[in-house]
Design a protein that fits this description.
Blueprint (H helix, E strand, L loop, with lengths): L2 H7 L4 H10 L43 E3 L9 H7 L10 E2 L1 E3 L15 E6 L18 E2 L5 E4 L2 E6 L4 E7 L3 E8 L4 E7 L11 E10 L2 E8 L6 E9 L5 E6 L4 E3 L19 E5 L2 E8 L6 E8 L3 H11 L5 H16 L2 E4 L2 H14 L4 E2 L6 E3 L5 E3 L6 E2 L1 E2 H4 L3 H8 L4 H14 L8 E3 L2 E2 L8 H10 L7 H12 L7 H7 L10 H21 L3 H10 L7 E2 L4 E2 L28 H4 L7 H8 L2 H13 L4 H4 L8 E2 L2 E2 L18 H15 L15 H11 L1 E2 L7 E4 L6 E5 L5 E7 L7 E7 L2 E2 L4 E3 H5 L2 E8 L26
Parallel strand pairs: 34-38
Antiparallel strand pairs: 1-3, 2-5, 4-10, 6-7, 7-8, 8-9, 9-18, 10-17, 11-12, 11-16, 12-13, 13-18, 14-15, 14-17, 19-33, 20-23, 21-22, 24-25, 25-26, 27-28, 29-30, 31-32, 32-37, 33-34, 35-36, 35-38
Length: about 800
Amino acid sequence: MSQTRQLKTAFTTGLLILSTFVACISANNQVSSEAGNSQWVDPFIGTGGDGHTFPGAVVPFGMVQLSPDTQALNRGIDPQAEIYKHCAGYHYDDSTIVGFSHTHFSGTGHSDLGDLLIMPMVGKAMLDPGTDNAPETGYRSRFKHQKESAEPGYYSVYLDDYDIQVELTATERAGLHRYTFNKGKQAHVIMDLTSAIYNFENKVIWSDVRVIDNQTLLAYRSTNGWAKHRQMYFAIKFSRPFDDIELINLDNKRYRCNGCLTKKSKPSTIVNSAVKTTAGKALKVMAHFNNPTAEPLLVKVGISAVSRKNALENLNEEIKNWDFNFTRQQAKSKWDKQLAVLDVDSTPSKKRQIYTALYHALQAPSIYQDVNGQYRGVDGEVHHAQNFENHTLFSLWDTYRALHPLLTITSPDRVPDMINSMLAHYQQSYDGILPVWSFHGHETWTMIGYHAVSVIADAYLKGIKNFNAELAFQAMLDSANSPIYDAIPEYKKFGYVPMDKLSESVSITLEYAYDDFSIAQMAQAMGKKEIAKNFYSRAMSYNNLFDHDVGFMRGKDSVGNWDKQFDPEEAKLMGPFTEGNSFQYTFYVPHDVAGLIKLIGGDTKFVERLDTLFSKNLSHEKIKEHEDIAGLIGQYAHGNEPSHHISYLYNYAGQPWRTQERVRQIMDTLSSDKPDGLAGNDDVGQMSAWYLFSSMGFYPVAPGDLTYVIGAPQVNRMSLNLAENKIFTINAINISEKNKYIKSVFLNGEKLQRSYIKHSEIIDGGELTFYMSSTPNKEWGQPIQQRPPSLSSTQNAAR
């Protein structure tokens, strides 16, 4: 609300204005007198090491992620290493900022986006970005972390070379910049349409810029990055008229507008005689402002994948005025509302880690739809979402494991939108399958498995049914039987993927088997008994790649010969395993751990194998071809998803106290509240979801079986504020550094003997109380009937 409007309404709404004034940002940049859970979030966690998160402004599931980019461009640096390091555009180790762009991935192992980089400057107007070790050669600036801050929905940094304070905030589809200039007779703002996070080469296919009036520009670009021919449109508005503007076509020549637009031009009104435009593959725009120290300069940017008109509509609808403080407060309020799903009693460090993990988990899949309901589909056409909000960024190989199960608890109202978005992808796809790893209307075909089926089945079985179940089930069948996808015909013929037909064959077979289990579970629930029987049979395919002679999962060719070069510790590119080795992937039978225990030789040998996994050192030479195998404890690699369920497998062998040890070991040694506090890529919230579940004291080893395997809680108390005003509270009595073992467990006052809980027991609300001890209770959870269920165990014999 503007100051003028406040004065006009002061006499009638004085108390409201006073409370609003107190809540809004004051000169010291405090946003609110009410400290919600966003106060515990530190967006810098994961920006160091290989966490690949960004610190910039974003709202829950927002389409815009407005954040600084610090990509290094120094000679002598391995470009590929730098690309990997800067997957999110920003890395905490860097000391210069190249600008602020509007779209970013959070925690991925691959890079793209970085749409529309904007950078303010004073002095000489620079066109090139410069290098990290010589920022003065371009528009880049040095900065210090001591003059940088971030909180949910807000980022601020002081640019040392220009004496400019930059502040950023965002809505779902628009970003808002505020630049406070402290020196200079003229300021410049560059809008670099050549910049991208994909790599250091220009990947722009085509772009254009239109100057609409002396405050407004419309722009477009299409890029060939990870996603091919990805389109994005921009609407850009300045809070005051620019005194001059340059449209720079690096493939042609520089054009100076030189007063072509007068201050009489009305904002957002196209005047034919005043419109200036340029198009090409290498465009930059430089806006110039006289007397910059007179007042802060604000820049609004709306984005759309559909059209310039939609970008402008998104901007005008979501940021109606120039009140930066109000927009920032709105962003904070949105985060406080989302983060209120948790109420945590623990140390400040633990609370920072937990709430930051939830913050990262609630960023994606993100909205990919304009305010008018339009979005660009995977077929490249413009569609209108009917009765759902379209979402994008499905990193399914990572996120089906824990992130999507977490969202069924924390954000069940948004899950149907995500599933309907996947179904729209299926209907629009020329291949007729569900998404694999998709973003911004593009399928990248990255990673393995058809894990959308797990997300859909898990949600359906949990009672989330605001989607067409019959259509969803048909999409699941089509994906699981598609002849064009990763050797499915061979998998169905041989019962495994032959290594001479496809690389990563062992991992693909094992992940297909789990996916088939989730299809069988949904078929069973829908009364499709014959289909369920078929897919339960397919789910047992893991047996076909277990070599009893060596005791490991091992590659096999189409003739039936075992891999002669087998090394259980080796992780090779284009080898039998996906970003892992046989030590790790042998344990990937989440739906039938009891069956795996039998293969390995019983409880004792299974526990010995688990212990070996955690104790046997893994040589760097064995994994050097994979840059993202990280967070090692022996052969266990917490920085990569195939290991995430393994610490919970002791429960299936009747030794849950060993799980309690391992979970504490992982959390104490591989996570912190520092910038390098993630053991590896956050992978669009999967790492964070693992941390959240493990802090609660349980984990979804096999999404779709409706159970969570109990580990051990890591905080004094945590309450889940669920739908329908229900609350599920986890208490850890006497928990301490030494008291890491469960002495006994009570669910709603009744002693719980089994080492797992059911989804319904959480969603119905109640209280789970752990009594902790410094010595393990080796009897609890030991009997077979108290262990978590498995497909081939006695609990499921009725099938």
